[in-house]
Specification:
- The protein is of the alpha+beta class and 388 residues long.
- It folds into two domains: 182 residues, no CATH class; 117 residues, Sandwich (Immunoglobulin-like).
- It is 44% helix and 18% strand.
- It has five helices and nine strands, in the order αααααβββββββββ.
- The strands form two sheets. Strands 3-9-8-5-6 form a five-stranded mixed β-sheet, with no helix packed on it.
- Strand 5 and strand 6 form a beta hairpin.
């Protein structure tokens, strides 16, 4: 057998095997060959991916910032628009309250003694208009910054509507004729004069609360809004006087007569304005222009004459200064008694400094007394230029 031969038989050559790769320890990254080739391409791809990620992240941040700025801008724009809209609504309702309710209402009341039968119904129409303004204002869209202003505005409009309703309710009693109704008429007149104070209060609340609150909110938001009207409802403080209200309505007083004085005695009654001066400067009636110093307290010295046959009690002399669209300045002085067929000079000081450098219309009048028929000479009108 061959395995017993002296010379061993050579084994057939084996096929060559490729060299085994060195093992990479677990968790270790394989080394990339330095220089070019596939290793360099893979490094460039990683850098490109990193740059793309950074660019995408930057774009994302920019878009987010733009969205935040855009949303904030929209919110600010919407807030500014809401503030302007609210201010415009307030300006509108207050202008309407003055022009469509206050002005015609007091014109109507001034003619009250001439149309007692229709007066209550006519006044009630303005009550409806005032209540409609309350309803309109309650539907306003109110920004948070205007909450205080809205509360004050609603109080203003409620005061006006309620006062008109109460005045309309008391007018028939105030204008009732006959001595048997005198005490009730007296009470009704006082109640009407009391409601005039509600109008005055509404003017104060509007000017001292509503307007400042709105202006404060606009200023804080750096927003310009519509100009707010003066909103004056009560045209003259004389409406707060019971005697003046009674005189306008022709009410029979419990003390006798109508208006401020008792039942008139037989004979002629009445006064006339003889002349007016400011200090030592006499005034000439229109169309003359009178130049008057406005330094210090301006006092009108009104010379009146009792042209009747009777002494008169509690005679009122009134001076009204009206310059352009400004609120009229009114001053009244009461003379305890005037003697029949005699003259008297009444000093009427203005409590407010008149506008300077502009012409004003000054109306001076002595008010009607009970029994007076002829009023043609009770009033005189002057054009006055008040100078510093």
């Amino acid at each position: 057998m061959s395995f017993f031969d002296d010379e061993p038989t050579r084994a057939a050559p084996r096929a060559s095997r490729p060299a085994a790769r060195p093992r990479t320890p677990a968790g270790a990254r394989p080394r990339r060959p330095a220089g070019g080739g596939s290793g360099g391409s893979r490094s460039a791809d990683d850098q490109t991916l990193l740059i793309r990620r950074l660019v995408a992240g930057g774009i994302g941040v920019l878009v987010l910032v733009l969205l935040v700025v855009g949303i904030n801008g929209c919110l600010n724009s919407r807030t500014d628009r809401a503030l302007r809209d609210y201010t415009r609504n307030v300006a509108s309702v207050m202008a309407t309250s003055q022009s469509d309710v206050a002005t015609p209402l007091f014109q109507l009341l001034n003619s009250g003694a001439d149309n007692p039968g229709d007066l209550q119904a006519s006044v009630s129409q303005y009550r409806v208009a005032a209540e409609e303004e309350v309803k309109q204002a309650s539907g306003f869209s109110v920004p948070d910054q205007m909450t205080r202003a809205q509360s004050a505005l609603m109080l203003v409009l409620h005061l006006r509507a309620t006062a008109i309703a109460k005045i309309a309710d008391r007018i028939p009693v105030a204008q009732a004729t006959g001595r048997d109704n005198a005490q009730n008429a007296e009470r009704a007149v006082r109640e009407i004069a009391g409601q005039m104070r509600a109008f005055d209060a509404s003017d104060v609340i509007y000017s001292q609360r509503t307007v400042p609150y709105i202006q404060e909110a606009l200023k804080s938001a750096n927003v310009s809004g519509a100009a707010l009207p003066a909103g004056q409802f009560l045209p003259d403080v004389r409406w707060l006087n019971v005697d003046d209200v009674a005189g306008v309505l022709g009410s029979v007083r419990a003390s006798g007569g109508t208006g401020a004085n008792p039942q008139p005695a037989p004979g002629l009654h009445g006064h006339g304005v003889i002349g007016v001066s400011v200090g030592s400067t006499p005034l000439s009636p229109q169309p003359a222009i009178n130049r008057v110093s406005a330094s210090g307290t301006v006092t009108f010295n009104v010379k009146i004459a009792n042209q009747g046959d009777n002494n008169e009690q509690d005679v009122k002399v009134r001076v009204t200064v009206k310059a352009g669209t400004a609120k009229p300045i009114t001053a009244t002085k009461t003379v305890t008694q005037t003697k029949a067929k005699s003259e008297a000079t009444v000093a009427v000081p203005l409590t407010t400094t008149p506008p300077r450098g502009t012409s004003a219309v000054v109306t001076v009048e002595v008010l009607k007394v009970p029994g007076e028929k002829n009023l043609t000479n009770n009033k005189m009108t002057y054009t006055v230029l008040f100078q510093p």
